[in-house]
Amino acid sequence: MSEVLDSLAAHGVVPVVAVDSAAQAAALAGALAEGGLPVAEITFRTPAAEAAIAAVAGRGDVLVGAGTVVTPAQVDAAAAAGARFVVSPGTSRAVVERCREHGLPVLPGAVTATEIQAALELGLDTVKFFPAEASGGVAAIKALSAPFPGVSFVPTGGVGPGNLADYLGLDSVRAVGGSWMVPAAAISAGDWTGIRDLAGDAVRRVAG
Ligand code: 3PG
Question: Which family would the database say this protein is a member of (predicted)?
Fold first, then answer.
């Protein structure tokens, strides 16, 4: 794994964020850092993604990545904005190759044996298991780890305070992703102390 993926694994949780502005992103990143979770995957689900990544990268105290990256052009935008890693909902050769050109670690989505083999063929050994709960959750990851002992997973989608420990208890799971500590309502209300506290709670749960 790359140094950046090692760092994600050390934090254990990757907040998956959608914001409407760069200012929101900067404030949100501050709240995550104060809560002890200085990591943010900012998704290309809003037009603000590129500016938001740049704003968080500019702070220098939060490990920022780009999420929901589905095209090589978005990889270029993420790299230009200062993203340190890329997350994709599925496995795309074009996206993975563009990430490699930029020297960016990439976590492509894979939940079936075929998709995992495709990621392996692209030279990857860590995938986003998405959508985790809807794809069989812990039981599915356990079953897939038998034929793919060298593969690590970052389950995301339906992961939260109630099941995070079950996922992190698996040897093959390096970290989980989720949006529960960065709820859309709290972001739009500017409830940064609420987000700080949710991040702090996530950190305590990872520590067990
Ligand atoms: C993602 O894109 O990774 C998911 O939307 C996050 O899933 P969650 O909202 O269920 O945590």
Answer: Belongs to the KHG/KDPG aldolase family.
Q: Is 88 in the pocket of ligand 1 (CB under 6 A)?
A: no
41, 101, 115, 142: the catalytic one is 41
pLDDT digits (tens, 9 = 90+) for 81-114: 999 999 999 999 999 999 999 999 999 999 999 9
Domain boundaries along the sequence of the chain: 3-207
Ligand 1 binding pocket mutation candidate from 130, 176, 181 (most atoms within 8 A of CB): 130
Cut 0.90: pTM above it: yes
Which ligand 1 atom is at minimum distance from the Cα of 180? 11
Ligand 1: nearest atom to the Cα of 130: 3
Q: Quick one: tokens of 29?
A: 């990143």
Residue entry with tokens 């949006």? 179
Strand ranges of the sheet holding 13-17, from the earlier edge strand across to the other edge: 106-108, 86-88, 63-67, 39-43, 13-17, 176-178
- This model of the complex carries an ipTM of 0.90
